[in-house]
């Protein structure tokens, strides 16, 4: 997927309604996780990404700051994010406890 033409989300768009369920892509354009839930809104937002597993089973939730991701909308308006991390990088982070 070519992300270069996708408009980036502004701080006001960084809400749970927009970010929950967003796919997160790694540096090789592979899907590395999905945003399961959001803490806060705007530039102080933190997102929980479910990494690994299959159909939501066995995944590991990790917490990252929204500034570490590049959220955007594709041609259909679907929100997704780019990350500099690989799936293994995210799996190495501490597990987020709800």
From TrEMBL:
SUPFAM superfamilies: PRC-barrel domain. InterPro entries: PRC-brl_dom, PRC_barrel-like_sf. Coiled coil: none annotated. Residues 18-77 form the PRC-barrel domain. It holds the Pfam family PRC. This is PRC-barrel domain-containing protein. It comes from Paracoccus alcaliphilus.
